[in-house]
Amino acid sequence: MGWIKGEGEIEASYKISKIAAHVPDLVVYSTLTNDIPYAENFHGVLLFADVSGFTNLTEKFCLSCKKGYGADELTRTLNSYIGEIVSHILDNGGDILNYAGDAILALWTVERVQLSEVISLVVKCSLNIQDQCGVRETGVGCQLKVKIGISAGKLSKVIVGDEISQYFVVIGRAVDEVRLAEGLAVASTIILSPNAWELCERDNIAIDPIENERAVKVRYIKREPSFSVEKYQDSIGTSVEHEKVTRVIGRKVNLAARLMMHYPGVVSCDSETCYYSKLPAFYFNELPKKAMKGVKNPGVLYQFMANKHQMYDHLM
Questions:
Q1: Domains in the chain and their CATH numbers?
Q2: Rounded distance between C-alpha atoms, residue 20 and residue 50, angstroms
Q3: Which partner for 259 in 51, 53, 191, 268 could form a disulfide, CB atoms 3.0-4.6 Å apart?
Q4: Closest by CA position to 262, among listed 240, 284, 287
Q5: DSSP letter at 6?
Q6: Is the pLDDT of residue 108 over 80?
Q7: Which pLDDT band, with edges at 50, 70 and 90, does 5 fall under?
Q8: pLDDT value, residue 123
Q9: What is the pLDDT of residues 195-246, one digit of tens each?
């Protein structure tokens, strides 16, 4: 039962992860020793994605679904669509700051000298979102679409409240500009705010000007961003614990995909999955360590060895 060591630690980590997965990194990694209120200045790139078609979809489900099932179907459809957009953002290193109905605000924190490179990374992420999620057909003949605004520049995180309850808000010119950019966007388009266009790698992003506006419409990116997601995460000090606590869903999905690639033909899992299976230790054999792209120190990995007859006997 060697894999069960640290049971209390794993249990505590699991509970914290469930909560922290719903909290922005900007809050999870806040300094806790400052007097309240206080502000922290930083540079960042903001992405504002707004889903259109929600009202029509709601009406369609109310009319076409069986009584009592419309709300459930609506929830499942929206969760699936918005969840896919969120996955693109997380996979590209973004931090979800807030949900506002059917809109998402995401942040990439950067050093000032990295702004242009990370803007390209966010533009590439936005193009992928539009390619995969730009227009989504639903089962009731209604389309969901997304429009995206991008801004960049100096931001401030302000913490207010008292010792019991604290609240955070992100303010700055980039916040105002991302709202402006999203407001200029129409379904299935991406708009760069004036400041983002000024700071980006202009020779790498093809755009169309917008009449009487300093903001621009993104057409395509000419070459892959030189600043990779891995490089970005390293630059902001991404650690194993950071990944473990704040990107629970994204990290687990990525780990599962890597396990299938690097340990083909077997049922493999990490120590946390092994522990929560509540199965006897002799059902698992430790796997040899392998370097897996995008996975840092996954811990001990196991191969599940039991056959279906053993599982049947165990469950009975």
A1: 25-248 (3.30.70.1230), 252-304 (no CATH)
A2: 24
A3: 268
A4: 287
A5: T
A6: yes
A7: very low
A8: 97
A9: 999 999 999 999 999 999 999 999 999 998 887 777 777 666 543 333 333 3
> 222 vs 175, 205, 227, CA distance in Å?
27, 6, 14
Sorting pLDDT into bands at 50, 70 and 90, what band is 66?
low
Question: Distance between CA atoms of 242 and 25, rounded to whole angstroms?
Answer: 8
Spatial contact of 16 and 245, defined as CB atoms under 8 Å apart: yes
Contact of 205 with 100, CB cutoff 8 Å:
no
Can you give the pLDDT at residue 278? 80
**Could you tell me the end-to-end alpha-carbon distance of the chain, in angstroms, rounded to an integer?**
22
Query: Cis before residue 37, ω within 30 degrees of 0?
Result: yes
- Taking only the tens place, the pLDDT of each residue in 122-138 is 999 999 999 999 888 88
- Is the bond leading into 298 cis (omega within 30 degrees of zero)? no
Neighbour tally for 150: CB within 10 Å: 31
pLDDT of residue 64: 63
8 Å CB contact between 110 and 45: yes
Q: With contact defined as beta carbons under 8 Å apart, do 92 and 125 qualify?
A: yes
What 3-state DSSP class applies to 143? strand
Q: Which residues contact 184 (CB under 8 A, 6 or more apart)?
A: 149, 191, 210, 213, 215
- For residues 211, 217, 223 and 229, what is the CA-based torsion angle, rounded to 10 degrees? 140
Token reading at 214 = 């300093």
pLDDT grade, residue 259 (50/70/90)? confident
Q: Per-residue b/e over 193-222, b at no fewer than 16 CB within 10 Å? A: bbbbbebbbeebbebeeeeeeebbbbeebe
Distances (CA, A) of 299 to 19, 237, 257, 275: 22, 19, 16, 13
Identify the three-state secondary structure at position 57: helix
CA pair distance 285, 79, nearest whole angstrom:
37
